[in-house]
Design brief:
Blueprint lengths: L12 H11 L6 H30 L5 H29 L4 H4 L18 H14 L3 H20 L5 H34 L28 H5 L1
Helix pairs in contact: 2-3, 2-5, 2-6, 3-5, 3-7, 5-6, 5-7, 6-7
Length: about 230
């Protein structure tokens, strides 16, 4: 039996989509449900950390390493900012979790007792993904796909409504993009100073291999008549 949505009507599209997506769990093996629950809770965040490290390793070898590494520093800082911005929103809206107001849901991630809107997981992972995308388009696109997959997992596991996830994705994107100019203006001098350090400089700029000397052209052998002379 369905209950009333705290942000809408009894049969809102938000609730209908929640039941539809979570209903797929009934026909999926338990091990697959457990795997998806783990990925939506921890796995995607770990994957984004790996992508961020990969992007940093690549950025160090580029000509614009100082600015690129500053951008990658902003990714986790921007995610933290999005999480902090979300806290008063979540407390103000005070939307209960889906399983509180609706029966018949298969909750795959137990122990969730906080408010539902906005999804802090979705805000966090999208902020990380957008931060990576600003520096490395290829890895950033993969990071955004992971963030979208994680958002789907939050609905699949019945810990968030679809609108919670959409709100979280939008919040993470907005915070990172809007604050990026100020953040980069503050972080770039820091990475430039680190790059100039003899010890810590490798954190920003990878050491370049010394250029190989160009092969010298051999002098032409003397002509026979010159030898005879």
């Amino acid at each position: 039996m369905r209950g009333q949505d705290a942000m809408g009507d009894w049969d809102s599209p938000d609730v209908d989509l929640l039941y539809r997506v979570n209903g797929w769990a009934a026909s999926v093996p338990d091990w697959a449900n457990s795997t998806l629950a783990f990925l939506s809770e921890y796995g995607v965040i770990f994957g984004l950390m790996v992508l961020g490290l990969w992007a940093w390793w690549t950025a160090r070898r580029g000509a614009d390493a100082v600015h690129a590494v500053a951008g990658l520093l902003w990714a986790p800082l921007g995610a933290s900012a999005a999480y902090l911005v979300n806290y008063p929103i979540r407390e103000l809206v005070a939307r209960p979790r889906p399983f509180v107001d609706h029966d018949g849901l298969q909750v795959l991630v137990p122990g969730k007792d906080g408010f539902s809107f906005v999804s802090d997981h979705s805000a966090l992972v999208m902020a990380l993904a957008v931060g990576i995308f600003l520096v490395n388009r290829r890895l950033g696109a993969l990071a955004v796909l992971l963030a979208l997959f994680q958002g789907f997992g939050r609905v699949y596991t019945a810990v968030h409504y679809p609108t919670d996830v959409v709100g979280g994705l939008a919040l993470g994107t907005a915070v990172v993009l809007l604050l990026a100019p100020v953040a980069l203006a503050l972080l770039t001098p820091l990475t430039r100073a680190v790059a100039a350090s003899p010890r810590a400089g490798r954190l920003v700029c990878a050491p370049r291999a010394p250029a190989e000397p160009e092969p010298r052209e051999e002098e032409p052998a003397p002509h026979r008549r010159d030898l005879a002379a």
